[in-house]
Amino acid sequence: MNRVTHHIVWLLCLILSATVVGCFDLDSSIFNNDSLPSYSLRTAVIPESCRTQVVLTSQGKKIFGYYVKSADSTESTIILYNHGNRDHLQFYWDRVELFYKMGFHVFVYDYQGYGMSEGEPSEAGMYSDATAAYQFVKSLGFADSSIAVYGFSLGGAAAVHLAANIVTPRRLILEAAFASATSLTQSATLIDVPSTYFMNGEYKNDEKIRTVHAPVLILHGTDDKFIDIDKNGKVLFNNANNPKKFLAVLGAGHSDIPAKMGESVYLQTVRLFVTQPP
User: Fold this and answer.
1) Could you tell me the residue ranges of all domains in the chain?
2) pLDDT tens for the 278 residues of the chain, in order
3) SS3 59
4) Which of 97, 173, 174, 210 has the fewest Cβ atoms within 10 angstroms?
C-alpha cells in the first residue's frame, strides 16, 4: 500500500467509524502517530557531530527534537520544520537532510505522542509544541528575521499558527498543506459535511494565513489525492498576503514533491526563496 492509499484508507476508516457510532470527538484521531523508545538517525549526510538531541517542555510533557548545525559556520538562517501526521521525526529525517544540503541550520521536533515525545497529540498540544520549538530556536540566538518556518501536510497547521500568532518569520513555506479540517475531510472523501461533525479541532489555516505578514511559498502536487490542490493549496494561496508564490508541482502526489521536482531543483527553489530579499 503506497503512502497516498494509506492516507485515504486511514481517513475513510475514521469517518466511517464516526458515522456508525454517531457524532463524537475525533480531534486526536487526525494524528497518525507512532512512538519510539529511541531514535536511530542516518549519518551519511548529516554527521553525528552536527546534531544535538534536545528535550523541551510543552503542556507539562517532554517533547524531543534535534538541532542540526549547518556545516557553513557563516550561515545565519535556520529552518524550523513541522512534520506531517505520520510516525515521527526519524521518518522525516530525509527532509532534514535536504535542508542541511541547502546549507541551513535545522530544528525538527516531534509533537506530543510522536517518537520519544510524551503525552497524546491534539490540536492545542501541537500548537503548544510548535511554540516550544520556536522558543528553543530563539534561545539559540536566532532572530525572527533568520527563522524560516516550514510546514508539511499536518505540520502546515503548526507552521501557520506560528506565523500568524507567535512570530513574524523570515519566510513561511507550506508543502501539501490543508486549508481547514473541513477541506481535509472533503478532499479525501465524497462526504460533504463540516468537520465539526467528527472532531472538535477545526484547524482554520485558511483564516489564520490572512494575518501572516511574511513572504509565503506554497508547494502543492497536482495529483495530490489526499489533500486536493484546488480546495487547499490554492485556497491558502488566495488568502495569503503578498509577497507570495505558488508552485503547482506537475504530477506530484502528497508526499513526493521534492522527488517530482528533482532534488537539485527543489534545493535551489527553496534556498532561493529563503535567501532572496522579500
Assistant:
1) 3-275
2) 666 566 655 555 555 554 443 333 334 447 889 999 999 999 999 999 999 999 999 999 999 999 999 999 999 999 999 999 989 999 999 999 999 999 999 999 999 999 999 999 999 999 999 999 999 999 999 999 999 999 999 999 999 999 999 999 999 999 999 999 888 777 555 455 554 545 556 899 999 999 999 999 999 999 999 999 999 999 999 999 999 999 999 999 999 999 999 999 999 999 999 999 86
3) coil
4) 210
Residue 247 identity (one-letter amino acid): L
Is residue 28 packed enough to be buried (19+ CB in 10 Å), middle (13-18) or exposed (0-12)?
middle
Q: In the 8-state DSSP scheme, what is residue 241?
A: P
Measured between alpha carbons, how far is 109 from 146 in angstroms, rounded to an integer?
A: 18
Kind and range of the H or E element at 265? helix 263-275
Cα torsion 157, 158, 161, 166 to 10°: value is -170
Q: Give the position of cell 505522542.
A: 113
DSSP H stretches of helix in 193-239: 205-208, 234-239
Q: Which residues of 114-135 are buried (b: 16+ CB within 10 A; e: fewer)?
A: bbbbbbebbbebbbbbbbbbbe
Tally of CB atoms within 10 A around 36: 17
Say how many C-beta atoms besides its own lie within 10 A of residue 209's C-beta. Answer: 27
Question: What is the distance between the alpha carbons of residues 9 and 32, in angstroms, rounded to a whole number?
Answer: 12
* CA 100/CA 47 separation, integer angstroms: 11
How many residues appear in the chain?
278
Give CA torsion, residues 194, 119, 116, 95, to 10 deg: 20
Instruction: Specify the CATH class of 3-275 in words.
Output: alpha beta
**Do the Cβ atoms of 273 and 173 come closer than 8 Å?**
yes
